[in-house]
Amino acid sequence: MWWMARGGGGNFPGIVTAFQMQAFARPEEVYVAHCTFGPEDAKAVAKAWLAQGEEMVHPYRKLFTSLQVWSRPRTMDVVIYCYDCDFAQKLWMESAMDIIARDKASRSCVQPHTRAWLDQILYEAGHNHGQFKPTGGAKEDLLNCSNGWGSQGRLTASKSGGKMGYEWLASEGMLDEVLDSIFRTAPEQEYGVMLEWYLTGGPKVDKIHRSATAYGPREAKWVLHYKHQWEPSDAAMMDKMMTHHVALSKALDRHLLCTNFYNYVDNDMSCAATNDDWLAAYFSDVPLMKAIKLSVDPDNVFRSRLLSSASDIPGWTLHSGLNCYHHAGADLLIGNDHIAESITLDECRAACEHEVRCEAVVVFHDATHGSCWLRTSISLSLCPRQPQYDVWERNDLHRAADSAIAIAVAPTTAPQNEGWIFLRGLNCFPGHGAMPVEGSDDQLEALSLVECKAVCSLRGGACDAVVVFHDEDPGSCWLRRDVQTSFCQAGTGYNLWFRPYLYGTLSTSPLPSVSAAATLSTSPLPSVSTALPERLIWVQHKGILCDEGFGAKF
């Protein structure tokens, strides 16, 4: 297990209850060199930077460096950082940058300068570019997980990939294909496609034998990380970005081995034809990992890609190549249909398990990370065959065939939560799936969760839900209307609570306990109040035409 813990990532079949960490003295200063280049010099700059790589990774140089390429604006940036360096080390760093930038007509270099270590961390996280909401000071700002490029930026939906290189160079063909893909064929989205090189090799990494840990590409000299990002609500741009991601991945497949750095895990590596190929791309000894998994977790409590069969999930049945949706073998869960653009398959199934009405989930075929749709009233015989999707059906519900399941919202242990639908980690706000309630302050302070819900309830049909900080009670409270969860941000430090009237007149009595041999109630569905606000009855599906024989009848 100790071997597995070092580099096994999310495949570790256990829980770490304690660990010891070796601390190092914090650097006092960071010496920074930074140059920007245009597309015409990008190939020559990349070759010159890689040629300096073997020397730059030596510990006595005390350097970190990266090369970053953006599709829009079409630029290439080289940065070199020197940590607590003396005069000679700074001089060598400057000479290395001079070699990289020499004779490049498009170069634009800033004068090498010094920052305090904490200032450098804040700068890289976007503190100087408006990506932080002040919370009391620089250190406090940095500790706020909602700050930084990943949370505050506009392009919060993304797809990452990566490949490792094993020489201190890159082939002419690879550079030509990659740079053409970034500068010429990438979608027209400002800061939409990023490619970044990091050096990962060196004496410190090499002195540990490859078989000593689960970490795989130890002999690699560098990692090439590429990231496509877009606004979560822009479905058309998402399609363009995903198409370009696949094309770029296949271009790299022609020049590099099928290995990747786990920090930039890509669950859909185009070079990995099988699950074992995928595992071998990241880890040093896949058979040993599987043997450890089988030995310590034979009941598969900790789910991962080490499963011998992807469909071997207790409590679930996989229907590969099937898609169930409204009027095609399933009903939607109002207000909780498309819950996320980018969550793991385990998280998707867990969301269904926490929703009493959910009977199945729909995901993209063979994907372990991506979009997740929750479904109810499943009738598999009416679901169309669509090879790009998979349906995972819960088999712990013991549903009776062709039976109507009485809708009920299970209350939590606190009576004041009766009927409210809880969506952990979901944040809905303007531009991301919700609007503020008119006539209210955007943020109400120092309210308990009960008080926050009460304020929403007093607004009647004007308030659909509330957003609060996770595990903070009392705390801030945001009132929300026109909620569309598919456009909200998942996996955040916030929670969303839906008001019960969204689902009509619902029973809030406790659900009956279900034994292993029991079935859920088959009583008729409760009547739905006609007093629902009109705007909550209608759901718009933009760009879809339903016609006779195509999803509808006259």
What does this structure look like?
- The strands form four sheets. A seven-stranded antiparallel sheet has the order 4-1-3-2-6-7-5. Strands 8, 9, 10, 11, 12, 13 and 14 form a seven-stranded mixed sheet that branches.
- It contains 14 helices and 22 strands.
- It has helices at 2-5, 42-51, 53-56, 87-101, 117-124, 138-143, 149-152, 172-185, 203-206, 235-253, 275-282, 286-296, 345-353, 449-458; strands at 29-37, 63-70, 75-83, 108-116, 157-165, 193-199, 222-230, 316-322, 325-326, 329-332, 338-344, 360-364, 369-376, 385-394, 421-424, 435-436, 444-447, 465-469, 475-481, 494-498, 547-548, 551-552.
- The chain is globular and about 75 Å long.
- Residues 398-416 and 501-537 have low confidence and may be disordered.
- Helix 2 runs antiparallel to helix 4 (87-101) and helix 8 runs antiparallel to helix 10.
- The protein has 554 residues and is of the alpha+beta class.
- Helix content is 23%, strand content 24%.
- Strand 18 and strand 19 (475-481) form a beta hairpin.
- The protein starts with a helix and ends with a strand.
